[in-house]
Design brief:
Layout: E1 8-11, H1 13-16, H2 18-21, H3 27-40, E2 44-49, H4 69-76, E3 83-89, E4 106-113, H5 118-131, E5 134-139, H6 147-160, E6 164-168, H7 176-187, E7 193-197, H8 205-215, E8 219-222, H9 236-246, H10 254-270, H11 277-284, H12 289-297, H13 303-316, H14 323-331, H15 343-354, E9 367-372, H16 376-380, H17 382-392, E10 395-399, E11 410-413, H18 416-422, E12 431-435, H19 440-446, E13 451-454, E14 456-457, E15 465-467, E16 470-472, H20 478-488, E17 491-497, H21 523-546, E18 552-554
Parallel strand pairs: 1-2, 1-8, 2-3, 3-4, 4-5, 5-6, 6-7, 7-8, 9-10, 9-17, 10-11, 11-12, 12-13, 14-16, 17-18
Antiparallel strand pairs: 15-16
Helix pairs in contact: 3-10, 5-6, 7-8, 11-12, 20-21
Protein name: Pyruvate carboxyltransferase domain-containing protein
GO molecular function, one term: 2-isopropylmalate synthase activity
Keywords: Manganese
């Protein structure tokens, strides 16, 4: 291992941690952070970004996105502290603005850039060097460089006299045995020091840091309490605890532990960061953490589905996070199924394979049907709904969790998460229905009773249709799917209770009559679901009316008002 006495530590709490709280740090916290880290023996403390208002709206960011000369003085005044670093983004700063930091504790400017701007950025880095600063180039998207491109880049960096070259484990996806290979292309013929910025998605930041030091790295990044975007970074206090034991004369972890106790425990309670399931998934799959975060927070898909979809995302090789990719995958109905065929071929394949298995077409021909959705009105109007059932004797279809409010004739699951959570609540008096895309091995794990499979095609951006009893739709709201299934069963009239709509939440924000832990709280996702369901209802209504049916009758209060006719009209 490299001589630990020669390793430098750069704490990036205020810069990288700013992604957590939008750089809106209290000045006292920053000042005390600088004081504590200086006492601890940290070599460089990165006090945010040098940002330019031309590129970043100051109304949208906190002060340390635009760390100024006055901010530096306010933070460091009266403290005999460590050297200061600032980060700049290539193309988003004015070189002349850096002159304001000359003569201050700002010693190091770190310049971050993507591969497509590498040559220009290294030239700018050389100009920063000639202003009188130490300079670091942070190679974003490092793994996308070829060997020849890296050799050329190293040559240019040496020519410009750059002091540090930094590589990040961008998605926190690496393990210690992979680290040496990461740095090998940069180790020979270099006149610069190597830096490593780890992320903690897989809780490997500490192990990977020492693998990097062993490989020849000279400087490593960390942050107090691991504060940073997503899963966060290598915690400074963990790194210092090790060095404190190995080199007690150089490092002292106690000031940082006191700092955490005074400020960062409360800060983390207000602005969570750190290891969790989405960030672990993104690390394992080498994707931007927002992909996993977006999918997990939708509360619709199980981990196997999400895992499979990462294969699609990785094949697209996106740079950063692009929500459109997730939205398209969801529209394409790729979850839980392998969709190698074109839509038309897939549709015909589904009809050929499944039509002969459908034994429930017109099973209750000419009957009234009542679909029980799971909105708050199902519980609120329970007594009136019971009177409705008593009067009209409809075939009752329910789904997911009904909480004993009603015992339907049929109880359906199409979502694997809901199936696992609630299948054991289904009354033995109800016929259990299970969607064909729930795997048989999962059914065998959870079901010890008779059940019937329901067949349907979940197709890419397809209009609603029913052919030979096979429903084609990409609707994933099971109660709306039950409306279509009612028609397949032979419904004369279809009534719906409890379909309140996602915009009709209770005062507590609940969209179900019970507390659904698997319901997303993301307002944008909720709105997408609401208007997506409205589109599906309109498609089904058009289909039913085109076949001579009455359409859809929602009998409890709903935001889907065009389908609403109050239950009292029927009693």
């Amino acid at each position: 291992m490299k001589d630990k006495n020669k390793i430098e530590i750069l704490d990036c709490t205020i810069r990288d941690g700013g992604y957590v709280n939008n750089w809106d740090f209290d000045l006292k916290l920053v000042r005390e952070t600088y004081r504590a880290l200086s006492k601890a023996g940290i070599d460089y403390i990165e006090l945010g970004y040098h940002g330019v208002e031309h590129f970043f709206d100051p109304k949208k960011f906190g002060r340390f996105r635009f760390t100024s000369f006055e901010d530096i003085k306010s933070v460091t005044g009266g403290i005999n502290g460590a050297k200061i670093a600032l980060m700049v983004d290539y193309g988003k700063f004015d070189l002349n603005d850096l002159n304001q930091y000359l003569g201050t504790n700002v010693s190091l400017i770190r310049l971050a850039f993507h591969k497509d701007k590498a040559k220009e950025a290294v030239n700018i880095a050389g100009q920063i060097k000639r202003l009188g600063f130490l300079v670091s180039v942070n190679l974003m998207g490092y793994i996308s460089y070829s060997t020849d491109e890296l050799n050329e880049l190293v040559f240019l960096i040496n020519q410009e006299g750059i002091d540090y070259v930094y590589i990040a484990d961008s998605y926190g996806s690496m393990f210690p045995h992979e680290i040496k290979e990461l740095f090998t292309p940069l180790l020979k013929d270099r006149n610069f020091k190597l830096g490593f910025h780890p992320h903690n998605n897989l809780l490997m930041s500490f192990a990977n840091t020492f693998a990097a030091i062993d490989a020849g790295v000279d400087i490593v990044d960390s942050s107090v309490f691991g504060m940073g975007r997503g899963a966060g970074n290598l915690p400074t206090e963990i790194l210092l605890s090790y060095f404190h034991q190995m080199m007690p004369g150089k490092y002292n972890v106690i000031p940082v532990l006191n700092l955490i106790d005074r400020f960062f425990v409360e800060l983390k309670e207000k602005n969570f960061w750190g290891y969790n399931l989405p960030y672990m998934l993104s690390g394992i799959n080498e994707c931007h953490p927002n992909y996993a975060k977006n999918l997990v927070e939708r509360k619709e898909y199980d981990i196997e589905d999400i895992w499979n979809i990462f294969e699609v995302i990785k094949a697209k090789k996106p740079i950063g996070f692009k929500k459109d990719i997730v939205d398209q995958i969801i529209r394409d109905g790729l979850f839980g199924k392998k969709k190698a065929l074109k839509p038309a071929e897939n549709e015909q394949k589904g009809i050929n394979e499944n039509s002969d298995k459908i034994s429930y077409v017109n099973r209750h021909n000419g009957s009234d049907f009542l679909v029980l959705a799971n909105g708050p009105s199902l519980k609120k109007y329970k007594d009136l709904i019971s009177l409705f059932i008593e009067k009209y004797k409809p075939i009752v279809l329910g789904a997911n969790y009904l909480g004993g409010l009603f015992v339907p004739d049929y109880h359906l699951f199409t979502n694997k998460r809901r199936f696992v959570d609630y299948v054991d609540t289904v009354s033995l008096k109800s016929k259990l229905l299970i969607g064909q895309h729930i795997p048989k091995e999962m059914i065998d794990d959870y079901v010890r009773r008779e059940y019937e499979l329901i067949y349907y095609n979940d197709l890419d951006d397809v209009a609603f249709d029913i052919k030979d009893g096979l429903i084609s739709s990409n609707c994933r709201t099971v109660s709306i799917f039950l409306i279509a299934l009612s028609w397949v069963f032979g419904a004369k009239r279809i009534f719906v209770a409890g379909l309140d709509g996602y915009m009709r939440a209770t005062a507590d924000g609940d969209v179900h009559f019970y507390k659904e832990n698997d319901e997303t709280g993301d307002r944008d996702v909720i709105l997408d679901k609401h208007f997506g369901n409205l589109k599906h209802l309109e498609e089904i209504e058009e289909y039913l009316c085109g076949k001579g049916g009455e359409g859809i009758h929602i009998i409890t209060p709903t935001n889907y008002r065009k389908f609403y006719k109050g239950i009292n009209n029927y009693l």
